[in-house]
Amino acid sequence: MENILIGRSKEQEVLLKALHSRSPEMVAVIGRRRVGKTFLIRSVYAGQMAFEISGIQDATLREQLKNFKYQLQNTFGTVAPAEKPASWLDAFQQLITCLEPKIGPEKLVVFFDELPWLATRRSDFLKGLSFFWNSWASQKNIVVVICGSSASWMIQKVVEHRGGLHNRLTKRIHLLPFNLCETEAFLKSLNLKFDRYQIVQLYMAMGGIPHYLNEIEGGLSAAQNIERICFSPSGLLNNEFSRLYPALFDNADHHIAVIKALAEKWQGLTRTEIIAQSKLADGGGLTRCLDELIASGFISSYFPFGKKKKEMLYRLTDEYSLFYLQFIENKAYKGTDVWQELSQTQHYKSWSGYAFESLCLKHIPQIKKALGISGVYTETSSFYQKGTEQNPGVQIDLLIDRKDNVINVFELKFYTGLLSINKAYAENLREKMTIFRELTQTRKQLFLNLLTTFGLKPNEHSIGLIDKDLTMEVLFQEE
Question: What is the pTM of this model?
């Protein structure tokens, strides 16, 4: 079955604007491995692609140049030079010679995929690309697309380039994993029929990575698919973790150490706590490592409500990495139906609660839409206060602090059915609201909201307490 481009409407719009503009364009597409960057570009520019080359991982300069020669010959036939270019400067001059006769009223697209692999150390690839753009392409009816999975490399070497590519980018796309709406549409395009509770379970284990979702089979439940894809020795995600980070980062051991440290405390760690947990040295190396993980979408940083910069928390937000470290790494399971067995444990309940919370935090626009406040400026955070002998501790999963003098206080619960609030839980929620107001001294109106999988079963304890009851259905809305 032919693959169909799902979602990505904003990204498609950017690419089409570049194609239909009256000026030459250089577009950078950045996104983590297997998020669908190449598929997006090929789908939108299928009819205009004049030349495409992808870097080879861990190849030498000689091998990359030989690959370039082969791609020229495959694309342009006998017009392409027979000899291998001696340098990237020669290679780009050969490309100019091949492209020049094709320049016309309709824009051509030239696509350099996996740029970090093409630009091997001391290869002068970026100098060659600068020459290609500044001396030729910037005056032609052309779109040059550059793409790479190492978001940090793309930002440092291209977006913030201080050489010949400085300020040459005309458009930039940061491609994120599918949200729930796009995930549902993607599965439907594969003729896979899952209800939304099943989709949420799949998403919590593998996230919205199209390449991972493509492994899902129809006729099997979410649990059966997770068992097959993650726990079978031949499953794609059984050992994907060992390949994921080395393919994106130099010194990937440092990145993995940070990821493993954050996997131990789901609510997040400060920089000082990461150093203590990971045993990494403080300094510029750690800063770069954290920045690279954030740029690549594996972790996020945020300020807890009312906290200052030095108290910034870093949180693991890549679903698959957390799932792998919690349930797969260094685990020796016997027999089949491993996931069915694990899903009955307390550890599963703790993980699923956090994973659902993380999923909700990735769908803030949808939550705001459901609240009817899409047009209101907001800041989102969480709140945690450790208990003392004098005061009980309090934890709030999500706060939406609004410019219109309101704070939405959210309880996020992954539950197998309707949630029923008993007297003790109701008292706990009221106490939580009281402590939050006292500790923060906020004068804003507080609305207590609930977001669960299937919603609330109203009773005498919930009426007058919960201001708004939302279900997982709101997370599947389009932005």
Answer: 0.91
